[in-house]
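Interim report, section 4.2 (structural modelling).
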Amino acid sequence: MTILSQLITSFFATGAFGIIFNAPKESLVKCGLIGMGGWLIYYLLEDYLDNPIVATLAATIFIAVLSQELAKFYKTPVIIFSVAGIIPLVPGGLAYDAMRNFVENDYNSAIALAAKVLMLAGSIAFGLVFSEVINQVVRKINQHKIRLKNPL
Amino acid sequence: MEHEVEQTYDIMEVCLLAGKIMLQSGGETYRVEDTMMRIAASYGIEKTHSYVTPTGIIFSAEGTEPTKTKLIRISERSTDLKKVAMVNSVSRRISSGEVSMEQALTQLKEIDALNVTFPLRIQVAAAALASGCFMIMFNGEWNDFIPAVISGGAGYYGFVHFHRFVPIKFFSEFLASFVIGLLSLVFVQMGVGHQLDKIIIGSVMTLVPGLLVTNAIRDLMAGHLVSGLSKGAEAFLTAFAIGAGIAVVLSFL
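Predicted structure of the assembly:
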């Protein structure tokens, strides 16, 4: 039941963010589905491993690889699919918590939270870069195969 | 020779316009550089250098004549993925040789002048829905759904309107999060809402600079040090504005 409500809300939240970011109309549902998949992975892994950083990394790699395939298929920039999908993973709530503690003069917990935010944001960025590397390696291998098949 | 010089300037104008639209619409730094380089290459300028930061683009083209350099200033930035996609498809058509330079320039100018955003009502509705959904995703209870929807929608509506009055992003974000905090507090005091923190976090998500933080770190990793640092600074300012707006409300408690 919890998972069902998480799936539905993550679908709508990601789709709605697609509207706020003015993604093309025909890609809104795809954005929603990507976000839903990413959030499902994050939610289950976080529950199982109790480690939000690994969960975020896994979900980001899923989202980024899927977005790259979709972008190749529809010949649009990757950012259209990946941005909205990543939004649920972004540590916005934690960033807010950190800032709130700063403004309330509770610097110790604020800095701890800020470090967490940085780690989570870093793992998202790392996931994005990592999937790009995978993409490039796959492309290089394919090019190499073609060259082997037709030697000049 | 004279003709060639003029043509180089025209090509640079096409490149810079494409780059400007992309950067203003939230395109990634490497994509902006890549697009400008490809356009220039397909019009015959092989050697180009570009320096892209969130607040400006410097672009120079090398050729047989003395190197020419142009600078363009970016003052307004938003996220408008549709425009990124449109410029991308124009640049694809340029690379495949379908579009001449004059056509490309007029098409890019059209895209620049175009307003393709969703109507404000729909944006506010989307923000409201997203706020409610995020509240649930952060393990909130369904009985807080309506308060989160209302305060999130009001916050986003306020953000857009304040931004029209006072074009300082920091200030409109501060006011918007103040509105969100105030509404959430009122709901909780009235007994309609239950968990103040969850309602506020859910509603604030549409303003939070999560994307900026991620892009900043990604730019840093890709070696775009200046744009990474400045995006990080922008994200920090936004987070500070939101935190301050909420803190003012919390001091009423």
